[in-house]
Specification:
Elements (H helix, E strand, L loop, with lengths): L1 H33 L1 E6 L2 E6 L12 H11 L5 E6 L12 E6 L10 E2 L1
Parallel strand pairs: 3-4
Antiparallel strand pairs: 1-2, 4-5
Length: 114
Amino acid sequence: MVCTKALLPIVIVIGAFIAASFHVRNRSAQLRQSNMIARPMIGNVYQVNREGPWPECVGMESWKCLERIQSLTDNIDTIETTEEGSGYCEGFRPSRVCLVVDKEDVVTKIPHKG
């Protein structure tokens, strides 16, 4: 009898842990989905992440990429442009985006926060 009474709380705790882990997994999937924007395309829908990285900017002129990033996100304070081969953005700041461009002012690396 004592053994049965001791097992019941353990089973309840394990069940609650399993239920909580499913809830956390669903919530994180909802948060990831809320950062995505559906862009219609012919024959499909292209998902764009609001918070970066922005691979679609590679090959764009820097000013077009800058406008695109500013239209997608509102929590960016600074967008720095550096020429390919020179020093990259130093330090990490989540409110900054670094654009690496070539001599023709075309983005050569995927822009991301940092």
